């Protein structure tokens, strides 16, 4: 593709990959975390709708449990989703990194910007999604939404046994720390290179880009983009949805 015919960053098609193959053991036994109901609708559907709410996102790829692709396809078919957005379901791998890689492998070539979003963050506002996309379009190879920390953080020496006292070894400067959320946004070429190069076990894709020596920038996150990990998080998510229905009329 010539430079004249190549889309500008602001026009580059945007796709989102949602790894949803995890089991979510901290929420207890039962269905995979992404398929747990939130206000009667699976969290995954809430997350898909949250990404598809952005008019810049034209494709959402859901990476399903390897034995649950048909179930996830049926879920997507059974719920109202924006007609302007295409949806694709692919089987996931044994790790989050492998699942994201499988989502990347399924991307059509025209998509130059990729979002990676946790299915367990079902309530991320569309303004946060758009802010990440805009920052990638402005030239950042990797972008993460992030929030300042409200609590003081201690670095400790981990105990050998759960529940045992742990010695504090340092108190990081809180003003320099951020709690990172998703969706994380990437220049596609950068993210593909990271997944082909970095083999360390990491907790997010931005860490992989950091290991390439490339810059990662933050944009303001949102308190409603929290991760639903424990039963109490479900209670909070239900409360957020109830407030939204009251304020927005749906």
TrEMBL record:
It catalyses: 2-C-methyl-D-erythritol 4-phosphate + CTP + H(+) = 4-CDP-2-C-methyl-D-erythritol + diphosphate. Pathway: Isoprenoid biosynthesis; isopentenyl diphosphate biosynthesis via DXP pathway; isopentenyl diphosphate from 1-deoxy-D-xylulose 5-phosphate: step 2/6. The record marks 26, 33 as: Transition state stabilizer. The record marks 174, 227 as: Positions MEP for the nucleophilic attack. Transmembrane segments: none annotated. It comes from the Bacteria. The keyword Nucleotidyltransferase applies. Gene3D superfamilies: Spore Coat Polysaccharide Biosynthesis Protein SpsA, Chain A. SUPFAM superfamilies: Nucleotide-diphospho-sugar transferases. Keywords: Isoprene biosynthesis, Nucleotidyltransferase, Transferase. InterPro entries: IspD (IPR001228), IspD/TarI (IPR034683), IspD/TarI_cytidylyltransf_bact (IPR050088), ISPD_synthase_CS (IPR018294), Nucleotide-diphossugar_trans (IPR029044). Its EC number is 2.7.7.60. One of its GO terms (molecular function) is 2-C-methyl-D-erythritol 4-phosphate cytidylyltransferase activity. GO terms for biological process: isopentenyl diphosphate biosynthetic process, methylerythritol 4-phosphate pathway. HAMAP family: IspD. Catalyzes the formation of 4-diphosphocytidyl-2-C-methyl-D-erythritol from CTP and 2-C-methyl-D-erythritol 4-phosphate (MEP). Belongs to the IspD/TarI cytidylyltransferase family. IspD subfamily. This is 2-C-methyl-D-erythritol 4-phosphate cytidylyltransferase. It comes from Streptomyces monashensis. The lineage of its organism: Bacteria, Bacillati, Actinomycetota, Actinomycetes, Kitasatosporales. The gene is ispD.
